[in-house]
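Structure ticket #2291
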Amino acid sequence: MSDIKARAQGLSPDIAARDIINVVKDTKNIYETLAIVSRRARQLAVDLKHELDQKLEEFAEVTDTIEEVVENKEQIEISKFYEKLPNPVLIAMREYLDDELYHRYNNLRDEEEEV
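Resolution: structure written out below.
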């Protein structure tokens, strides 16, 4: 996971226009490309959320009263770091354009239609 965070830190968190011809060069279909990127983005979002939850659990304190609010600077820094990361869709799109994603077609549907 740290590899994803390291690569994502160099990405701009701003949305940028993409060359559609470059985006669809492998699949020849924008909808298939978006399906691939969106699945990877969901994986990244779940992984990053899980990692953040694990790190924040270390600072969790069980208190009996709601009145006590404890501010932990380390917890705030960790949260700020994750907030600054680009959207998982931007990370997934960068991975796709850099040919770092593996995708394949499931031929099971074709075999079922022939039967």
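Closing remark: Residues 30-57 form the longest helix (28 residues).
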